[in-house]
Every structure is written in structure tokens, then in C-alpha cells.
Amino acid sequence: MKSQQIAVLLTCYNRKAKTLACLASLYEAKLPSNCQLDVFLTDDGSTDGTGDAVKELYPQVTVLKGSGDLFWAGGMRLAWETAMRRRSYDAYLLINDDVWLQHDFMENLMKTEEYSLRKTGKKGIYCGATVDGETGKVTYGGSRIKTNHVVMKSELLAPREIPQKCEITNANILWVSRQVVEKIGILNKRFTHGIADYDYSLQACKKNIPVYLAPNVCGTCSDDHGKNWRKADKPLKDRIAYLKSPGGLAYNEYLYYIRRNFPMFLPYSFVMLWMKTFFPFLWDKFKN
Question: Against a cut of 0.85, is the pTM above it?
Fold first, then answer.
């Protein structure tokens, strides 16, 4: 059986306990005998000693120092580019550092690759579903587009016993085959923080690359997105700053994402971003 060389990619910032727990779950997971992992972690300016703690407990991990303003997408690109310079890996496994991986998560991803080859003759992108540790509710994974007209809607899928086609993926647990990287590259540099994983899978779909949600639950991860608007009691200056912030509504990047993937949705998106900024009391009143 041919050995699989896999680069595991993570980025972190000031959540040492979660980062170490994630790595512990990775190294405790059951891996096929033909899998060999190299782990690359970007520490983007943590002040809580995350990078040093990782080096001490997991000296086999390549810890990279970020500039402090890379955010999620920038940190993942640095890890990815570093891995690609080391060697040509068979696959790249993107993991969020707040995920606790299930013991058999890799088996589920491998099953998805076998399924993809059987159904399409191609290797592709496979995301693993995560659930909330208390409620068991699906938090991240793969989504299917329900409409693509004036308003785009998507449905987060619950994992089943077999892989399911999807178009939008979260990179909380995301397998990207080497053949995909050769065809579409890595995460787009236009994205600083979020959205980059959504865009990546959508671009893959456009190139007829298989995108699947893996079977079964692959990990535990709480939904930490919260409200995506600033409340009405915040000054307008703060609300506009949130609108433009990479960690907020990422105005320019989000509109670029919409224009690139759902151009018919652009007018609606433009209006809604400014509505959230100027009239947040509507969201305060009607959104939980």
C-alpha cells in the first residue's frame, strides 16, 4: 500500500489550551498505517505562550511565527506555502485549532476519497462535520446551495453514513488533495480572515472538482461566530469600523466573494451590509 504523505495545517492566536487540546486529539487519533503526517502551525503573534508550549510538548511540529496581523486565512496560507516548499504532499489537511478530532476522523476522510474516486474518477476536497459538545448539533462542515437567484441560501448538512455532495465547506476539518492544489492553488490572497474556505470550495466546484462532506461526525467544535453585527447602542464610528474589519463584516472582501461566486446576489448583499451598519436595531429586535 502506497504511503500517504499529509501536511496538517493550523493557525493559532492566544488560545493555548484549545490549540494543545486540538493537537492532542490529532496525535491520539487512529491513523491508517500508510499515513505519515507533518504538522505546520502558524502562531500569529500569540502573547500567551502558545507557540512555545507547542514546541515543548510537540517538538515534531513546525511552528511558524506570524506577523501578528495574518488572521485566519493569512496564517493558513503561511503554513500551506511552507509545507509546499518542503515537499509535494499527497494531501493537505486544514484544521481549526479549536476542534477536538474524533478518534476515527481520518478513516472517514479516507472513505470519502475512495468514494470520490469510485464515483468521479477524481480526488477532491472533503470536509468533516463537527458538532457542539453539549447539544450534539452540527456546527461546521459542508453546506448545499438551495437557491442562487437574487438571494442565495445554503443548508448546513448533517453527516450520514455515506459522503454527500456539497458546494460550501468550512475548513474546521478539510482535506485537500494534491491534484486540487495543482489545479486551483491555495486560499485566495484577497481574503484576510473568513470566507476564504467558502470561496475555495466554490471555485473547486466551478472546475468540476469533487467536493464532499465526509460520513459520520469527525470532531467537536462550538459555534463561536456569534452575532454578525454591532448592536445599536454602539457608536456609528464603531459600527463602520466593524463593517470594514477583517474580523467583522469584511466589507470589501465579502463583496468581492459575492461578485466572484454569486454575482446576482451582489445588490442584495451591498444593501444588507449597510442596513446592518446604519439600522442594527432591526437585527437586535428580530434576530436571536
Answer: yes
